[in-house]
């Protein structure tokens, strides 16, 4: 089995280093016969036993949590900490869930000790890379966490999470962020015996190759913070869950078919902020991140949670090299291209150069960027698929120009980029690339659509003829107009195409 945490190119603020990191990529393959046979045998022999026993303990933990929440409303649960027999049941529930990890083959090593809440009301855990990170939570006895509001309704797990008295974030509430920060501040500064608040300050999962930007929410109270580092020193990484990588079920299957998995939790000394840090949560967060990065022996990166949303959009569209879209943006910014229209001009021009095969020399000349800059070479390398020294420049242009557009506009841009005729006409191979890399159609579906649009056997389709066809296919309408805003704009004519006779359609 082979695991990779880099996609060949990644991103850091310092582009002087030749190798950049992409913390959102994790590839995991069974690449040897031995690993495949061993996994198959353990799937038959070990997995069923583990699943049955784990389910039993999960139900037991849920029953304990349900008993502990009897007779208490959600409002009361959020007003004051649990006491008496309820707090003792919470410890029992956490212990039962901890046994689940033992059954799953996890061996835990703890470095340092967890201080009392009075010394550190907040706990910052990083790097956050897996649902298995909850092992640290149950070891700490079930601290309160900041969680999405919908997690409360998850079968079994919702009750267990609710028992920790979490701080829920409701995305439909426009004031959610402010309310969450207020609740964190209130509990952290409270004299009541609230449990510690555990926060994953990165805000999303990474592959642990670096620490991305910490969100400042946990640092607004200006109280001492307990930094906690988590590591998985396994030869084969079956726990890392990133935006570009195996899904949760595959990871769970591979993890439960490993004889053992190792996890290390290191409690660093409590970090007490100075006056400047108390007044500047971002500074406080960054300084804690520096301490944790040093302890972990990994670099820091200026990736943020917003970059994950950009990655999601790129993957949803199936853009070429979608996992490197953030790298693309940052490298362009480092080269001073953020405020230029070089790519727009190139996409609109009818150059004699074959954009399907562009050398590095032509690449830097077309974009007017310095050829000796490392960032220029890294930008080119994102799209270089083999050793022939060329890239498909159209893929680069599509990623730059389409990522921040509405879906219809992205498709329109793709039609322009892949148009080799200069007359708005796409042949079948270019049409397939345009729609496969914007609305994520399969190649077979794209070919079928092309032939249905090209009823007159002209050998090409246009953007407008494609839109006319889309209107007759509800499933394609939903792909092209993904959200309410796009559907509203379409309804009011802003995306109303011109047909091939030059008349505007109703």
Short description:
Pathway: Phospholipid metabolism; Lipid metabolism; phospholipid metabolism. By secondary structure, this protein is α/β, with parallel strands linked by helices.
Query: What is the first-to-last residue Cα distance?
Result: 57 Å
Q: What would CATH call the architecture of the largest domain?
A: 3-Layer(aba) Sandwich
Mean pLDDT: 86
Gyration radius, rounded: 26 Å
Q: Helical region count?
A: 22
Strand order of the largest sheet: 3-9-8-4-7-5-6
Shape: globular
Pathway: Phospholipid metabolism; Lipid metabolism; phospholipid metabolism
Pfam families: Acyltransferase
GO molecular function: acyltransferase activity, transferring groups other than amino-acyl groups
Family: Belongs to the 1-acyl-sn-glycerol-3-phosphate acyltransferase family.
Structure characterization notes:
This protein is an alpha/beta fold. It folds into 2 domains: 2-303, 3-Layer(aba) Sandwich (Glycerol-3-phosphate (1)-acyltransferase); 308-491, Recoverin, domain 1 (Orthogonal Bundle), CATH 1.10.238. Helices cover 45% and strands 9% of the residues. It has helices at residues 33-45, 47-68, 74-79, 84-103, 134-139, 157-162, 176-189, 248-256, 275-279, 281-296, 305-317, 325-334, 342-348, 360-367, 374-383, 393-402, 407-417, 428-436, 443-453, 463-470, 474-480, 484-491; strands spanning 2-4, 27-29, 106-111, 122-126, 144-148, 167-169, 197-199, 225-231, 261-267, 358-359, 390-391. The protein has a 7-stranded mixed beta sheet with strand order 3-9-8-4-7-5-6. A two-stranded antiparallel sheet has the order 1-2. The longest helix has 22 residues, at 47-68.
């Amino acid at each position: 089995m082979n695991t990779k945490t880099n996609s060949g190119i990644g991103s850091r603020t310092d582009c002087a280093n030749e190798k950049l990191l992409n913390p959102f990529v994790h590839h995991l393959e069974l690449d040897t016969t031995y690993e495949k046979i061993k996994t198959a045998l353990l799937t038959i022999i070990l997995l069923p036993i583990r699943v049955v026993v784990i389910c039993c303990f999960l139900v037991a933990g849920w029953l304990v949590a349900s008993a502990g929440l009897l007779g208490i409303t959600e409002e009361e649960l959020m007003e004051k900490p649990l006491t008496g027999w309820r707090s003792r049941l919470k410890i029992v529930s956490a212990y039962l869930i901890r046994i689940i990890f033992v059954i799953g083959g996890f061996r835990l090593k703890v470095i340092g000790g967890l201080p009392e809440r009075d010394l550190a009301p907040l706990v910052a855990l990083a790097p956050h890379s897996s649902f298995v990170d909850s092992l640290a939570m149950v070891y700490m006895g079930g601290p309160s966490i900041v969680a999405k509001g919908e997690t409360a309704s998850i079968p079994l797990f919702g009750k267990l999470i609710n028992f920790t008295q979490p701080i829920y974030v409701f995305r439909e509430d426009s004031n959610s962020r402010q309310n969450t920060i207020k609740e964190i501040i209130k509990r952290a500064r409270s004299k009541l015996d609230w449990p510690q608040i555990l926060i994953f300050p990165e805000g999303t999962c990474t592959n642990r190759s670096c620490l991305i930007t910490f969100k400042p929410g946990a640092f607004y109270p200006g109280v001492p913070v307990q930094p906690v580092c988590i590591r998985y020193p396994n030869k084969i990484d079956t726990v890392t869950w990133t935006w570009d990588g195996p899904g949760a079920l595959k990871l769970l299957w591979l993890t439960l078919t490993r004889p053992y998995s190792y996890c290390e939790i290191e409690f660093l000394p409590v970090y007490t902020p100075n006056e400047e840090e108390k007044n500047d949560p971002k500074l406080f967060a960054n300084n804690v991140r520096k301490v944790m990065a040093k302890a972990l022996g990994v670099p820091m990166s200026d990736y943020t949670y917003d970059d994950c949303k950009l990655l999601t959009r790129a993957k949803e569209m199936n853009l070429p090299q979608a996992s490197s879209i953030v790298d693309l943006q940052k490298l362009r910014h480092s080269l001073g291209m953020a405020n230029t229209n070089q790519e727009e001009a190139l996409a609109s021009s009818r150059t004699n150069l074959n954009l399907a095969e562009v050398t590095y020399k032509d690449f830097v000349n077309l974009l007017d960027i310095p050829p000796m800059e490392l960032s220029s070479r890294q930008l080119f390398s994102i799209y270089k698929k083999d050793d022939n020294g060329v890239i498909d420049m159209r893929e680069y242009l599509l990623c730059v120009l389409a990522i921040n557009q509405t879906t219809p506009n992205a498709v329109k841009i793709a039609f322009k980029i892949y148009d080799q005729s200069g007359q708005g006409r796409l042949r079948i191979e270019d049409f397939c690339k345009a729609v496969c890399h914007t609305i994520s159609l399969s190649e077979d579906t794209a070919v079928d659509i092309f032939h249905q649009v090209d009823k007159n056997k002209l050998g090409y389709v246009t953007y407008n003829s494609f839109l006319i066809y889309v209107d007759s296919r509800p499933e394609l309408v939903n792909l092209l107009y993904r959200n309410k805003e796009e559907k509203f704009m379409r309804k009011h004519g802003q995306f109303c195409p011109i047909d091939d006779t030059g008349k505007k359609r109703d």
